[in-house]
Amino acid sequence: MLADADATDALGAALAQARAQLAPMPVLHVHLHGDLGAGKSTLARALLRALGVQGAIRSPTYTLVERYPLSDGGEAWHMDLYRIGDAGELEFLGLDGGEASLWLIEWPERGQGWLPAADLRIDLAVDGSGRRAGLSASTRGGREWLAALNRVTDPQAFAADS
């Protein structure tokens, strides 16, 4: 349960701390699921900030992709696919992935067939005045990330499933 924006920020910080424990640093794909207003952009922004992104962290709602250098030397791509009409539109975004070490993808179902599979799936939902977050891993990298998350925080804090 994420009671407020501070709790969402804490989840982002915990994910960043857990990611830092992975060695070697794998390329990771995070699919962020949830209705409008569920907190996908808020969580992505908190994670990017905790990974050392300086300056403005813009929502990719209109640009579709925002790229950010990370303090570990990698690059994060934050994508919001809500506005695309067809997954084939992704072909024109130049998403070869060569530079990206972290993909944060909102509305990934709209890019089905063109996007890499999720290492980590995060489901967010409004729950009263707060949010609910469910995390699940589908690859070795995702499972290692969740295991590291469980080491840096209370294993039940964010409903992490491996």
From TrEMBL:
InterPro entries: P-loop_NTPase (IPR027417), T6A_TsaE (IPR003442). The keyword Magnesium applies. It holds the Pfam family TsaE. It is found in: Cytoplasm. Keywords: ATP-binding, Cytoplasm, Magnesium, Metal-binding, Nucleotide-binding, tRNA processing. Belongs to the TsaE family. This is tRNA threonylcarbamoyladenosine biosynthesis protein TsaE.
